[in-house]
């Protein structure tokens, strides 16, 4: 019976979905214009729409003149009122669901409205698009025949207004999962939405260790690795294919995957297993890998979002100039700006992208506007450090599970600056000093600005690397209240707070 469901979904639902995807792959401007007008029309009678004269907006130029580029701090007062039950503020009606973003550069959480329109036409639609693209690449997929594992967070009511609930976007999606998805989901929903994350991992490990029917999994790599090690410990197996022989795919996103790729290949030693990158954020579902042979993602142009992009030279300006999708250039960094069906207007999620091609518009996530090192003009992005670390690990037969890095500023008589890395190895290199210098050389090859500053050590010293014991980052994140399926270690910062906290935490534990 299940094979028939899988065949029917593939033949009819996903084939129709793929036709729609192909329309916006090659005519994204039409989809974007449609969403622009639909969003403006829907929200023109909201408080925000009236204040910014949405009724007078005739085109995107009017929109850019009348609505400033915003960030979370600008919209936070509106969202706080919405969470207390106020209606028609940023989006029509009363909104009762809010995705909680852990935030990678601040201890404060962000709460993003998730009205039903956004849930259905952004997050769930993006999930269907990703699955359709996966089946298009791999027609032998069996997602609707066997079990699929996703490890979500949890949600809770807002004390001041119990009708409003907040949680990880993964938990909200799991709670609202369509019936056909529930048929093939594991673990059970009570376990999946448990608030105690440590107990949840243990319980999921117990449950999934008892089935051999798992075909696909999704989630942040860090926490999945914790789960998988527990599963191998409980089963006594040496790799995941011995536990789940039908494994076919991993949908991953949220953090750069390159530092984890070798670890996953050792856990799943198969050339037929596929990795599909997705870009599903608290603010919306923005991208999915459409060609498994390339390391870029298709921009989902017909999923409830109108996009603009800020060129890198405009990032520090109070009123930055934006460009529309048709005007972006390849191989150039842009900050993403969205207006979407959750009431975020000309909003900057903080991610930066580089377009790799046009028609279809595909991109790579290059970093975050607040997660980079540019203390000395070196302009090092997360994508650079992920790539350099992966290559260095390959050359030294080592594995890194977590890292964070920061600048070393001029102080104490220092005439030159540098970078300081804190690294947790899963498999340490035989020669740490060689690893240190090879990482520095590899980063220079990847980033010409860093190479220029490192030339003959005239401006920057060679980076300094500090290894810490296994589990240090996990314990540090837990101490910060960032322990959960959607919590991510901050990779880069122009300040030294994270590096110093991790080192202090490791020292406090007797390291």
Describe the fold and architecture.
The protein is of the alpha/beta class and 511 residues long. It is 39% helix and 21% strand. A hairpin with a 6-residue loop joins strand 16 and strand 17 (380-381). The longest helix is centred in the first third of the chain and has 25 residues, at 2-26. It is globular, with a radius of gyration of 23 Å. The chain starts with a helix and ends with a helix.
In brief:
39% of the residues lie in helices and 21% in strands. It has 511 residues and is α/β, with parallel strands linked by helices.
* Assigned CATH class of the largest domain: Alpha Beta
Q: Which fold name fills CATH's third level, the topology of the largest domain?
A: Rossmann fold
Provide the spatial order of strands within the biggest beta sheet. 6-3-7-8-9-10-11-15-14-13-12
Residue fraction in strands: 15-25%
